[in-house]
Amino acid sequence: MEQRPVIRLTRSPLEVCLEVLNIVIIIGTLVYLLIRWRDLPSTIPIHYAGSGEADGWGSRSTLLLLPLIAIAPYVLITIISRFPHTFNFPVAVTEQNAPELYRLTVQMLNWLKFEMVFLFSSLGVLVIRSATTGHAGSIGIFTIIGAIVILGTIFGYVFHIVRRFRTRTTS
C-alpha cells in the first residue's frame, strides 16, 4: 500500500451543524416512538408492496429496530471518516492534493450520514403513523427519492473529485 499523508481534519461549521442535526433527528425519532408506543397495535405493518399496501406484518417491538437502523450508519460513518488516508480514491493522492481530497471525501461522508439518518428516521416515523392510522402514505416514493438523493450525493462528489484532481497527460 502506498504511503499517504495522515492529516487530522478539523470540522467545518457545516459539519458541526450536520452532526447536531443527526443527533436531534435520532433523539426525536426515539422520543416520537416512545410517545406513540401505547397507541400502536400489537401487530403492525413492517413491509410494503410497491403500491404502498402493507404486505408484511410483525410485532410492534419490531419498531425498536428502526432507530438502530438510523444509528448504525451514523456510528459507522463517524468512525471511518476519521481515517480518510485509508480510503480508495478515483485519483492519485499526493502531498499537494491530500488535504483538499480528504476534506471533500469527509464532507461527502457527512452528507451521506445525514441523508441516511434522515431517511431511516423518517421511514420509522412513517411506519409508526401507518401503524396507527392504517394508511401507508408515501413510504414507497419517499424511499425511492431517498435512494436517489444518496446516489446523487455519491456520484456528484466522485464526479467533482475526478474532474478536480485528474492528472492531464500531454502528448
From TrEMBL:
<feature type="domain" description="DUF1648">
    <location>
        <begin position="24"/>
        <end position="70"/>
    </location>
</feature>
<dbReference type="InterPro" id="IPR012867">
    <property type="entry name" value="DUF1648"/>
</dbReference>
<keyword id="KW-0812">Transmembrane</keyword>
<protein>
    <submittedName>
        <fullName>DUF1648 domain-containing protein</fullName>
    </submittedName>
</protein>
<feature type="transmembrane region" description="Helical">
    <location>
        <begin position="12"/>
        <end position="35"/>
    </location>
</feature>
<keyword id="KW-1133">Transmembrane helix</keyword>
<feature type="transmembrane region" description="Helical">
    <location>
        <begin position="62"/>
        <end position="80"/>
    </location>
</feature>
<feature type="transmembrane region" description="Helical">
    <location>
        <begin position="111"/>
        <end position="131"/>
    </location>
</feature>
<keyword id="KW-0472">Membrane</keyword>
<dbReference type="Pfam" id="PF07853">
    <property type="entry name" value="DUF1648"/>
</dbReference>
<feature type="transmembrane region" description="Helical">
    <location>
        <begin position="137"/>
        <end position="159"/>
    </location>
</feature>
